[in-house]
Fold these 3 entries.
Entry 1:
Amino acid sequence: MPIPSGNTAGSLRLKKAGEVATTVGIGVQTLHYYERIGLLPKPQRSSANYRLYSPEVVRRVQFIRKAQILGFTLAEIRQILDLKSRGHPPCHRVIELGEKHLQKVDARLARLRDYRGAVAKSLVSWREQNSPKRRCEGEFCDLIEQLPDPAIFLTKPFDPLPD
């Protein structure tokens, strides 16, 4: 049922998508995406058909963003929210997921330390090889081309590790 242009339902101040996005620090399309994938309920509509969000939805989006920053995936966040909406305390699941994330972070750090060691070793070698008379060999730069495949350390510096 459309709400008149005053944007209030009872004493609650409803916000349009742009206001919510600005408040929470996300894009409007992200907000709409959260709706499409079921992280947010369908919003009320104004008489002009604008989406109108309650303060509860704003807090929910803030929770989603905070959980994402901590490394939780949208699927994991949905699990947490679903548990809560069904009246089950989600904290045990959050701890399980947090432990899994910590293991991944530790593994990633170990790989990054190995990668750092390889880069540091390469720099020492490069400095020794660098002289005013040095000719750069190779198709692009032999210093890089002579290195082992960096995929043995990681595919990209911050790629997530597989489950």
Note: The chain has a mean pLDDT of 85.
Entry 2:
Amino acid sequence: MYVDNTGTLPEWIEDIGRFFGGAIITLSTIVLTATTVLLLLIPGAASIPLFTLNMAAYGSMLMLSPFSGKIKSDMRNIGWNPFNDDESLVLSSSNISFYKSVFVIRYGGKSTIGGGISFLVIGIGRGETRLSTVRHEYGHHKQQRLLGLGLYTPVVAIPSLISAATSSNNTHSNRWYEKWATNWGNRGFIWW
């Protein structure tokens, strides 16, 4: 009979727990997201489906972690905590992370120019090294929660994409919606 003197569970048992726990989280949050999806369009109410959608991503990452060493490493990096508030841990991830309950996807190659995008989830370029970019994109996520996607998309998202593609970085970062995102991103973990 095997007795574990270290007091830790074997990894395969932890993997089984993560898989089934992730399945419960994923299924329940998918149901909640589906039943609240129209709230995405309503200012203020968009917070509910945005949160449940990101928690569905969290459950999915728990389920996938036993089958992907990269996902498992990235999730270990944040201590399996979807409410991680350390920007440096987000930037040190390979493929995925979570920042203040928002799913973060790393895109592009290591040579990809930095920057990010925020629409439902946050995308951060693999070449990004600035902690402020993570906070800024989280500020855009807060704008989505406040405005709802019905207002956020035409008022912030589309002008921001056009500005990022056509303006110098200094001009882009001085636009009112970008300053607003930076200001809110720097405020910490507050709902608004």
Note: The chain has seven helices and four strands.
Entry 3:
Amino acid sequence: MPDGGRTGKAGQGRRTALRYWLLQVPGTVLLVVVLLLVHRWLGLPWWAVAAITVGWTIKDALLYPFLKHAFDPTAGDQPHSPVGRFAVAREGLGQDGDSRTGYVQLGGELWQAELAAGAGPVAPGARVRVVGQQGLSLTVEPVAASGAGADEAAGS
């Protein structure tokens, strides 16, 4: 690309901003309707209706830098993916006929997890490697107690 890929990133930023502002429209319309009803029934001055509406829009503009990541459809892509990271099983997975699902701790968060197809059982407190993610559920496999996997797990 002659522009070094900047067009895609700028276009994505514009789409994120457009998404944010379009999602603010229903709230702003509702505010205006309520203010018009208050004006009609209680005599709220026009300048107050306009000032509150402008203040509401300024509030949205001031919050945008803090909220834009939540409106960015690419924010959940690979850079923060848990796949390949190591976690600790908080309960046994697939032991003694138990369920192949349970919870693992990844960093400071508890995640629902399921054993990968063909993976052996995992004891509580054992290290596991995240091999997949579907929504808020992880697919994990046990990490060998010795060898390179144990060294990597100790560093996570």
Note: Strands lie at 86-89, 101-106, 109-115, 127-134, 137-142.
